[in-house]
Amino acid sequence: EERMAMGRGERRGTNRGGGGGEILTPRQREEMVRISKDMRAELEERMAMGRGERRGTNRGGGGGNRRYTEQKLQQAEKIMAQRTRLPAYKMKDEIVKAIAQNQIVVISGDTGCGKTTQVPQLVLDHHILADRGSQINMIVPQPRRISALGVSERMASERHEAVGETCGYSIRLQSLRGPKTRILLCTTGIILWRLECDTDLASV
């Protein structure tokens, strides 16, 4: 809890009186603690592999790597705290249930509530927990190239990955995706082109 508070830029004893810090609900705090525990081992392994390291090869003098890992962990916990405050994330159970029970679902909300960045991830995570993650192939339409790039980067950062892994994008003359990509940000022009090739979008 102390480390998560530090990741959110808080310190004990600094939020006294009318300090505008937002108080998490017990459910949100439990969610953050659970994710934090699962996240630590995964982040350490992923960052070690990203630096070309393998377990047992870095003997002695590993303090710098540990500090780097702690910084990344605090950053990840800060991002998770931001996600849990979004209205879309708070309603994740209702959203996932509605999508599972209906062919067409309309989700409306104010700008910045998490419709674009959270809903696709909530659906994917639900199927991953049910061991159906490999069956998911989602397209998220975006009106402009810059928004497709920006949203894909945001989603990737929230999942502690690089763009092109779970979250990728496809715009005119440029695409970044891989065999494990499950969420693809596309401009409307790309989607129209795909409809010309596959009117039913059978693979989506």
Automatic annotation (TrEMBL):
SUPFAM superfamilies given in the database record: P-loop containing nucleoside triphosphate hydrolases
Q: Which GO terms describe its molecular function?
A: ATP binding; helicase activity; hydrolase activity; RNA binding
Q: Where is this region: Disordered?
A: 1-32, 47-69
Q: Which residues form the signal peptide?
A: none
Q: Does the keyword Metal-binding apply?
A: no
State the UniProt keywords alphabetically.
ATP-binding, Helicase, Hydrolase, Nucleotide-binding
Q: What is this protein called?
A: Helicase ATP-binding domain-containing protein
This protein's species is Corethron hystrix
